[in-house]
Amino acid sequence: MTALDVSHHSGSLQLQKLRAARDAGVTRLVVGTQHHEIARQQAGVALMLGLEVQAYVYLYFAANTAERVRRDLPLLRAIGATRYWLDAEDTPPGMSADAKVAGLRAAVEAAAAAGVPHGIYTARWWWTQHAGNTTEFAHLPLWTAQWDGQADLHVFTAYGGWKSLSMKQYRPATAAEVKAGGVWFPDQATGVWCDVNAYAEAPVAAPPPPAVPGVGLDQRTQLRGVLEQLKRDGALVRNSGDAMVQRADAALALLGGES
Prior knowledge:
It contains 8 helices and 8 strands, in the order E-H-E-H-E-H-E-H-E-H-E-E-H-E-H-H. It is α/β, with parallel strands linked by helices. Strand 3 (52-58), helix 3 and strand 4 form a beta-alpha-beta unit. It starts with a strand and ends with a helix.
């Protein structure tokens, strides 16, 4: 199946143009959260046409990535995003791979604490050079940028412990498509307003934590977030703080979370 991803550079989307994309087989639109008002407009047009809407956030690792995720939460609820992709491609000068991985980890934890279905957007070149090819996030869905022109999720150069894809960004709009004025339409900044993606009809979701009697999935996710915050708070308090961390670790173990 085919998805388009757009950003704030794409600007407002016109109904008739996105309808042309839908009629050509596009079934999903992924909007960037760089500018919320633009994202709301883009998602609104997609929803009017019956398209699935997802979202992605470009993570700046020199900033507070968890706070960036929390800032997007009202937007994600408003547009009904079915998945929130954490975009890992920033290359701040002088920052170590461990520091970038820590920033991504903080974003993942914030999304999980909010109960938001999430995944990783990245590319093999970035992951191997800037994240040390870590396998820490291999349990999450992967949307990879592999511009090989092949709309086939099985054609995939593996990395980071991932064995399969949820979505594949395989090419940008071509100059011929832009010139023809068909499905793809240019923006002033780049001449191309979207990239083209293939995705599985039933994307593989992150495995749920083990069931806990009497605790629903949403409650369990929220509780994990509270416990992880308790661990962070406890680490700042001497003596009694140690006990707080130990109790949080024990509760997280029961929930199936990592300590």
